[in-house]
Amino acid sequence: MKVTDFALIFIGVALPIIIIVYVNVSFTIKAEEQEIYYKKIINTALRDATEQMKEVESTDAEIDYGYSGSENNKVSVNAQIGVDTFLNSLYNNFGIKGNAQAEQYLQYFIPAIAVIDYNGVYISSVQKYDFINDEGEKEEIISHVLNPKRYYTYEYSIYKKGTNDYKIVEGTDSSSNSRKPSGYTLVSTHTIEFTMDDYVTHRGSYKNGSAFKDIGVKSFYITDSKNNGDLYYGIYDNDLKNEIVELLQKRRTEVIAATISKEMEYATNNNNYYAASAGIQYSFSFPGFTDDEMQSQINNVGIVAFVQGISVGNKYLNAKAFSTSKLTNVTRLYLSLPINGSSKYNMRLYHKDVTCPEYRVSDHYDITPSYVFTKQQAASVKAIKKISPTADADYEGFYPCPICNP
Fold it and tell me: Is the pTM of this model over 0.85?
């Protein structure tokens, strides 16, 4: 056989293989470029949403967490604006803005959007609901819906045996027989709503004879020993008090992380039902968070979104995108007590600035805490005034200063 014959045979065998490899490599490169492009679109949409959802307020508002980008400007989070901005940005970049059917179809590939706020998380997910159109007819709609805020909630109960033997039982079922420590009696139950810092809202009840009475709702800082007594209502054991405070400090980040993950996992799994009804065969699944990713979400307000199932070449897009906004509590509301004859206002007040004329003529020394971050805190805070080396005076609730008008 001639050399030319061998060459022709080689070309006949090798050339198809080379063509197949070239096509596959080109296809893979194109798919990777498309995936990068999609992820860029998603990240840009999230950044836009994070900026748009912040509402700067210079006056009083129902929502006031004390966030501030500049002195005396409060910022609250509007979750619906965040979700709408994210979706609209995707519609524009995918070139489907105004096409209602295409917009709805794209939503199936976004199983969960989480707006992570100071004291809870909002989840937007695909749901079915009834809609009344302009003709008064009821229509069934399937689209993204923003659910009510899920607060970062934690529960525990305190049990007692004998004179000074206490046990802390964690969980929502703490009063059931399965969790009750043998030989112990239930003393009190406690529900905590955590925030991204040390500030909490507490609800609880305590056993009074054969009945239970409400402890009441109060907000305070976990470590504020002057005001955190409801955490261990009726308990005089200092070791137990310290144990509860340390436990809550430890559980705070765990509860926030678990709440966000649980809500997003539920929404992602639930999306499979609606996607299947639209003919989408992709199996949506919650990708989870790394420790670094979750730590960022716990410390900052922001948005997380999953986009899955969009075909990119020979695989499917599985994008997990984050955008956070570090909103710092720089707005401070300073507390003051009245001094007889120094002012016409004989009231406990809070001020937006220490230069306020009313603040200057009022008693603002040796008050703990000397300032708070929000109007809600100022209205309910229990402040302690040191009146002598061995004596304190308690003051609860402060009012906005009529001079500086915080």
Answer: no
